[in-house]
Amino acid sequence: MSLGLNVNSNGLEVTESQSSAGNGGPMDSAWPMFQHDTKHTGRSPFGATGNLGILKWKFRMDGAVDSSPVIDKNETIYLGGWYDFYAINPDGSLKWKYGKIGGWVESAAVIDENGTIYFGTSIGEQNFLYALNSNGTFKWKYRSGQIWSSPTIGYDGIIYFGSYNKNIYALYPNGTLKWKFKTGSYVDTSPAIDDDGIIYCGSSDHNLYALYPNGTVKWKYNAGCRIGGDPTIGDDGTIYFGGVEEAALYALYHNGSRKWKLTLGSNVVSSPALAENGTIYIAAYKPGPTGAYIFSINPNGTINWRYEVEDEAMSASPAIDKYGIIYVGGWLGNNDVGGNLYALNPDGTLRWFYHTGDSIYSSVAIGEDGTIYFGSWDRYLYAIKIIDNVPPDMPDIDGPHSGNPRTEYTYTAVASDPDGDNVSYFFDWGDGSNSGWTEFVPSGVSVNSSHSWLFRGSYVVSVRAKDDYGFIGDWSEFEVVIPRDRVTTNSWYLWFLERFPLLERLLNIGYFYSRLI
Question: 275 and 344 in one domain?
Fold first, then answer.
């Protein structure tokens, strides 16, 4: 074994001589590469059954985060940023940081079965595909054009990626070139690999290429527009991908002929994700400044449902957990700040969402315990824990059951939250007015709110409580009677007195004086 740095004619820098044989492919871990697997299904065998996502931790990075996280078998999370590459422990602490890359990491990394991490850089005078050991030490780097493509590892250990220099590359695990294939324009999509070892990759020359493992062309399909996102391969061999200018989703047979094309009316730059039953999920943003849809599409190319996001665009790729929950992030337009991670039920209803401080271009990775990981332009890597949240109990209400018009009375409400969350209360006074939501107080702590009724009558005071996460409990009711005057029951006379309260007071004084004499 020869140590030290060597450079060859292919632009390769290595620290040691290695065999060029494959080494077994991607790591068997929760999320070893972009969209989980070589077919880019975006489907995880893990998940959590809760109804709410809350912050578990967030890790501050050196700059805005575009890249998507991957996870090894020890649940270490790997993610690139501005000029640094990070390994984060499952508790959110830094494991190591590699800061000698000299470029911006836009894409996701990939991890092989030996723990080697591969990733590319996309900004800088020189761009490389890097290989790091699992302890964060340098292994080798291969020079190419800008790499926006996430690398993929075949089951023979070969690493595939695309570059802005118009090439699709295949490298041996030691970083030497196996082959490169020239396309007609830049390649910013990530290769997907089917069960036969065929590599599928889109180019901005409008073609989706199917390449044999030796780098020769099996077929190419011209979509008539720029390929958006990465191809995804179904269990039956169907290849799915989006077209940007055509605003459509394409489905191709294994032989390269078109199965169907579905026009979505929105720009598609994300990758499709595939549920176990063959349902396709994809995000698309509207041609205008804001607005997006998340589509659920049947295997025959018909729309099952679509979820509209009015104020956000979407370019991240969806991910699906074992329970069929779909996760995808968005970014706000119109100079608004923030971005939301959405969790949708399989029927297209919103399960929950989580708001961050800036746009989310990063796609989700799902850990073995169901934790959701993603990056944001607010410079954080987020870890979202899924929990079962229960709304607060019905409040107990206390206060006067009767009183006089235009007299203020104070009512007390108290409720317990089964999860121990803080609670806020809402008083509906039964006369068309309400208190609005009160400040949050600890579970089991009472709050007071006061009100006066203008007219005589019976009123139902209703109170409900909500917790920190917006879960609202049931109403409690409390009857209050503001009695009518005992002198008369004439309706027009009561109306007259209510319109002229000063006259009512004078008449009442006269009435009580006559009783005294």
Answer: yes
